[in-house]
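Troubleshooting log. The previous structure file for this entry was overwritten by mistake, so regenerating from the original sequence record. Sequence copied from the archived sheet and checked twice against the printout by T.R.
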Amino acid sequence: MTRTRLVVILVLLSVSAAAVSGYIYVRQQRRKEMIPKFEQQLTHTDPSVRLAGASGLLEFEPARPDALLVFAEASLELAEYDEAREKLISLRDLAEAGESIDLAKVTRLHADTCLLQAGTIVAQSDPTDADSIEDRVERLVGEAEEQRARLATLPDQTTSSLLIDVGVADVRSALLRLEARELEGNIINKRLAEQEDEAKLISITLADVRGKIAEQDGLLVEAADQVLSADPSNQVARRRLVDMHLRSGRLDEARKQAEAMASQEKLDPVTAGRIANLLLDLDFSFGEAVTVEDLRIARKLIEHPTVRDAKHPSLELARLFLLHHEAEPSEVIDVAYKLFSRPAFARHPRVVQIYTMALIAAGDARAAIDTIRPYNEQAMPSYEALSQYVLGAAYIAADNRALGDQALRESVRLKPDSLPPRVMLAESLVDQGRLGAAEPDIRAAAQINPDHPKVIALYARLAVESDDRRPLYERVESALNDPSFELTPHHAVLAVSMAMDEVERGKRSVSLLLKDSPNDALGLIGRAWGQATPQQRAAVARIVTRSVWLALQRDPMSEPRWPTYTRLSAQAMQPPQPSDSGPTPEDAIATIEQLRRNYFVPRIEQVALDLATLALERWPAQAALVADAAVLQLWLGDDDAARRNLKTLTAEQREAEGVAPVHAWLAGEDVDVTGEGAEGKPVGLPPRLQWLALATALRGDSYLATHGAVHAILTDHPWADLAVIEAMRKAIERGDHDRALAWTTVAHGVNPRLGALLRVRYLLSVGRLEDAADEGEQLITDLDPNAVVRWQAAEVRARTHLAMGRPGAAIADFTNAALVAPYHNMGLMRAAVDVAVAGDRLQSARDTLARLLGDERTPPYWRDLLLARYAEIRPNDEFGNQVERLLVFRSGDPLLRWYRARAHEAVGGDEALDRAEQTYQGLLDDAPKSPRVLLAAADLAIRRQKLDVARGLLNRLAALGGLSEQAAAERLKRIAPETKGVGVGQ
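Regenerated output below.
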């Protein structure tokens, strides 16, 4: 080696040494400057800052335990699970090498990381990915269980071990639920494709999966209960319970647990944000409407004193979600836009969704499309369905229905069990007038969550605008039978308004109902009713009014009225016999009065009047119901009752309820009822004033005025047959049969079906039985089974058959009607029984009654009416035997026990009456305030001359007030002489 080369090498070595020394010096200086700064960041509230501080420290000291632990905890909060697990494994290795490290804490964090990562994988996966992620999820669960085994070797770790059990059960349950969602989506798709057999096969598998879910949920609850028994403030166990209850659809229990968490003295920011987000995102995640209660609990969580200043991403997202529900769109837009600038939220799918929805709410649909469309093209698979849903909403807001429906359909394809896109797609189709196209999606939405208010509203719209009324009937009955549903005066007024076709009056009731309870099922149905055509409104009214009427008397023992039933005999059905000179006006009027007042199936106006009467017993101060009852009495020809009702109202109340003109007319005053229609026809007026215009015209016998009034009523309310019947009655009363028949022609011009029905009624009233039978047959043949006129036609045809001596055919009329309208089967079958009685077919009536009474599905109200009818047409001993047979299966049924006592009373004799008395006493022991039992027991005491006993029972009855007080007063007045004039309250 030459001397020159050696010198060069020595120089280079010297320079390198100097460089290394310089580097070491610079690094030491940098370390002196940076380490304190990094150490300060370790305690920052923002996990991203803590993560940066831990990373800086580890750059200088890769094995520093406190930095490793903070790095792992911050990564866990930021959902960077792999990095967290890596650092936790390093910590465990250091502990095993002898470093002083809290091994229990590291092990718990490791298990938590595995379980949170597994849960996130499940939560962000499409149901169709359930099989592909199962191995990965189970590996993470297995790793968590390994940590549990390690904890078992450490002292005082029972609670921690139980928490891992809770988490394992939670993750496995979530994975099974993902599989269940896939199966549920497949079932929905199969049913939409009308492949019911394949859907049933999938349902078998689904039932097995649900059994496994229940098993895992049981393990979760068991472990969580043990944790909370030892430590009621444990938030991890409670959070898992909230998750589980939400997934199971037990919202009330989930809210209860979240409320308990929000009430604790200290709250973990991560947990608070997570639970708040779950409550605020119920709609998309669980298909449940977010309620005021959910907003209150979420606000309580994120404004908790120990977390309100925290900057954790889940909390900030929850705050944005809460703004989305409560604040103006502009405020939501501002906050969301600021979040986009932060790394943790850049293009966050939920922030994008809320930002886009706020733009839509602000009316800037174009900006919404420009925001979501680029994101939609690069959305992660787990958020693709959500992105398509938001894109569809943006397009629909921009009035681009084609692209909007396309995006929503894609969202539904990606996630068949997701409710919001399914509902929005159905709403879009309905708004376009494509109800038939929307029907599969409405029915699919109902399979996901039939109680969601938007689903109820869509179902109501479907039922209102289609011929199939069963969905509406089922929805109404489901609402009325819900234990949490409370019937109010507004429901009663709405139901009566529907029957009277008082649209504006009904809309006011709807507004009041939805103001108090936005999810009120009857309110939502009423809103759809108010938007429907007159024909559709009539069909809906018959279901809602009858159902609410029944709801007011579901418990027959709660009121003193004896059960009512139709009292029509075969003799009463005989129309005038035709002669050479024709029927006398008196005969024809008598028959048409029967058609006007007496029905085997009570007409809707009579049901509404009875509903108003029952409602006034419960809410006696309702002026609206008093006014409605008076108007209905006027329509039904009971002017005296209408006068009595209106006299109970003040002049101000009559004015407010729109019945001041009715009161004046009933008082004999001239009332000017004018409208804005052509030719002076009073169109566009409320039905009560249109009827008043008709009554005024008939009082003056003005053909032109009557024609205008009849035509106006039928134009606005095509099923208002009472108006035409009243005009026919007046014409027949004056001997003008041509004019009476002419009114059926007027009706035919507006509503051909109603005109045909009224013509059959006219033919029946004048004794033209063969013509009535032939035209009635043709009318039934031409009718759709669900048509409003179907029952009315069955009524007239049954009367015609009875008049012609064909009771079997008359019975068949109602039996066939019951087959095509199964949702009102009981009412129609009871009508068939009454027709059989009217036709002297008593054995047929008894057989039908026995079958209906033996059906477990027959509710108490109908059993009451059927038993009352049965008691009329069977000998006393046979009726008693029938009651005893029913009691074998319902031994404690108070209604049957009441009828047992009635049967004993009917037999008579001291022994039987003693039994009746004992039965009543037993019932009073169980229900000492039952009005019906008190009244029946008092009547029996009067019969047996035990007047002091009767007086005591009647005073107890009078103390209940209302109809009970009236019934007691009548009885006390009857026995006053024998009781020395002592009356109610004395």
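The mean pLDDT is 82. Archived copy saved in two places this time.
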